[in-house]
Amino acid sequence: MLDVVGALLLGVICTADVSILIGLAPVRSAARFAAFVIAAAWISIIFATAAMGGFAPGVTGPFPAPVIAFLALMIGGLVAWVVWPEFRSALLSIPLSALVGINVFRIGGVFFLMLHDRGRLAIPFATSAGWGDMITGFAAIPLAVLAAWRGKLPRRLLRVWNAFGALDLIVAIVLGALSAPGTPFRIFFNSPGTEVMGTLPWVGVPTLLVPLYLMTHLTIAVRLRSVGTRQAITTPGQIDNRPIRQAA
Contact at 8 Å (CB) between 26 and 87? Predict the structure, then answer.
């Protein structure tokens, strides 16, 4: 039953996150359509691979398959950020309220604690990822509301939240890898490890949601550095004191 509820919730979260980020990006219709196709293809590949056991322990040798998929998407996003100015400008032009707001979905980290309670996910990964995501998600609620309502946020407060949210994701990936069964570098041997994160529906977390949220944290961090005042302006189109041209 937990897997069914988790599948429904993760489906909603993945769809909402992708729709919000791509839908609010000021890009041409063709580029938006291409982005949706790429996102749908990646999600389909991940879930089809998981259904065939492609993320099971040992399939990719000593390195956990979910971590490989995470690195592939994360590195791809970072490369696009560096070499593709249009991609970077599109992310920087998304309203800050939306970038913060989608992190509210991370309240779903409670499922990590529930999996642990049922003996399917070990500590320290379960508790660290669970509580870290929940704290980030709950804190994002007033920040997103304030950003949408007032049009700006206290820069220092947003910076603290952003750093905490990014660190939570990085620690979760590291702890997940160091708890994975069948790896020579495993240092946390609490049973049953993190094997469940390579199964449906939970594989969607490290292979899609974590890279996506890390990219939002990167985008927020760059916008914070680009604003010289005490408050981060949430209205898109004014990055580095230069207007970003909205694509038709």
Answer: no
Specify if 248 maps to a domain.
no
Rounded to two decimals, the pTM is: 0.90
Cα–Cα distances in angstroms (integers) from residue 153 to residues 99, 100, 246, in the given order: 13, 11, 23
Range of the domain at 218: 2-243
The domain total for the chain is: 1
User: Which among 182, 187, 188, 143 is positioned nearest to 162, based on CA atoms?
Assistant: 143
Distance CA 5, CA 246 (A): 39
Cβ neighbours of 206 (radius 10 Å): 29
Tell me the pLDDT tens digit for each residue of 2-18: 999 999 999 999 999 99
Tokens of 213: 């949220």
Whether 56 maps to a domain, the answer reads yes
